[in-house]
Amino acid sequence: MFWPSFINAALLTGLVAVAIPILIHLMLKTRQRRMKFSTLRFFDLLNEEAVRSRKLRHWLLLLLRLLVIILLVLAFARPFLSNTPASAAQQQPQWVIFILDRSLSMTARETEGVRWERARAAIRKILYNLPRDARVGLIACGGQSEWIAQPGPATEALKALDALQPIQAAGDLGDGLLLASRFFRQHPIRSTNTLYIVSDFQRSSTLKVPDAPLPPNVYVQWVSVGDAHSPNCAVTEVNLAAISGQTSAVIVANFDTDDTMPFPVQFLVDGKVISSRTLSLPAGTQTNLDFTLPKLSPGWHTAAVRLENGDTLAADNTRYQAIYIPPPLPVLLVEPRQGVRIYQEETFFLRTALDPYFGQTNSGLTGFEVDTTTPDELLRRLDTGTRHGPYSLLIIPAIKRWPPGASAKVTTFVQNGGGLLLFAGDNLSVNHYTTELGNLLPGRWNTIESATDMDWRIIEWDKRSPIFAPFLRPNAGSPAVARFTKRIAVQPLESDQVLARFQDGHPAMILRTFGQGRALFFNTSADTQWHDWPRHKTFVPWLHCTARFLAGRNPELEGTRPPPALAGAETEIELDKNMRNLPLKWIRPDGIEQALTTDNTGVAHGLEMPLAGVYSLRDSQGRELRRIAVNLPASESDLTAFTPVEMQNRLPRSDTPSTQSHSSLWLNDENGHKELWRLLLLAGLLLMLTETIVGNRTVP
Question: 0.85 cut: is pTM over it?
Answer without folding.
Answer: no
